[in-house]
Amino acid sequence: MLKNRSFILASSSPRRRELLTRVGLDFEVIEPGVRESVREGEAPLDFAKRMAREKALSVSGSVPRGRIVVGSDTIVSVSGEILGKPSDVEDAFSMLQKLSGKTHEVITGFCVARSPGEILHLGATSTEVRIKSLDSEGMRRYIKTGEPMDKAGAYAIQGAGSCLVEWIRGSYTGVVGLPLSELVSVLSDIGIVES
Q1: Which residues contact 75 (CB under 8 A, 6 or more apart)?
Q2: What are the catalytic residues?
Q3: Integer Cα distance of 152 and 91 in angstroms
Q4: Please, which residues have CB within 8 angstroms of residue 21's CB and are 6 or more apart in sequence?
Q5: What is the C-alpha separation between 152 and 86, in angstroms, rounded?
Q6: Measured CA angle at 162 (ends 134, 87), to 5 deg
Q7: What is the mean pLDDT of residues 68-91?
Q8: pLDDT one-digit tens code per residue, 38-49
Q9: In the prediction, which pLDDT does 188 show?
Q10: Is 140 helix (H, G, I), strand (E, B) or coil?
């Protein structure tokens, strides 16, 4: 169990909360007021880092001076195309078709800021994920579980979607939504975490 001073997680993701809770970190949650939209020509890595930064800064501007805020954003990229959260069942099906039998990249940007707006760290992890070949019936069955509907790329590696994954190369927790090893190292460097 890690010992730490409390910080703020700028996120609405239950998966990020669960990851931090599992390792025993003390934090509070404030949902950021950020609209997630890709700019024309924006590369996947740049988008993930920008969103993490915007989330951290949107919260750090409204909390007491000196508080540490962590923002994060996870995206799925296949052949350079960014796949966000599906808008409906057909969008989820289309995303799973694009991932079927292919290796894609999951990028999680994360930003550590000190209120009222000082960026202490901005980084990202990139993980390769291989999805097995899927048939239409299997994709429809998975979509009916409801799990894909609020997940980037329309699958959850920590849930039933783990059955779709052949292998990963990189940060498992980054694919879930927050690269813990990298984040804890940064928080340790700035004196928030003692391991």
Answers
A1: 44, 47, 48, 51, 82, 83, 84, 106, 107, 108, 152
A2: 73
A3: 11
A4: none
A5: 7
A6: 70
A7: 95
A8: 999 999 999 999
A9: 95
A10: helix
Q: Enumerate residues 6+ apart whose C-beta is below 8 A from 153.
A: 76, 78, 83, 95, 99, 104, 106
Torsion 86-90-95-100 (CA) sign: positive
In the numeric block, which tokens belong to residue 84? 């966000």
For 43, phi then psi, to 5°, come to -70, 150
Asked whether the beta carbons of 166 and 132 are under 8 A apart, the reply is: yes
Q: What is the pTM of this model?
A: 0.94
What is the pLDDT confidence band of residue 3, given thresholds at 50, 70 and 90? confident
| CATH classification of the domain holding 71 | 3.90.950.10
Tally of CA atoms within 13 A in the half-sphere of 64 that contains its CB? 3
The amino acid at 136: S
Query: How many domains does the structure of the chain reveal?
Result: 1
| Structural domain that includes position 122 | 3-194
Integer-rounded Cα Rg, in Å, for the chain is 17
Mean pLDDT (whole number) for 177-182: 97
Q: What is the C-alpha separation between 118 and 137, in angstroms, rounded?
A: 49
Please tell me the distance from the alpha carbon of residue 71 to that of residue 159, in angstroms, as a whole number: 23
- Nearest to 93, CA basis, from 40, 156, 138: 138
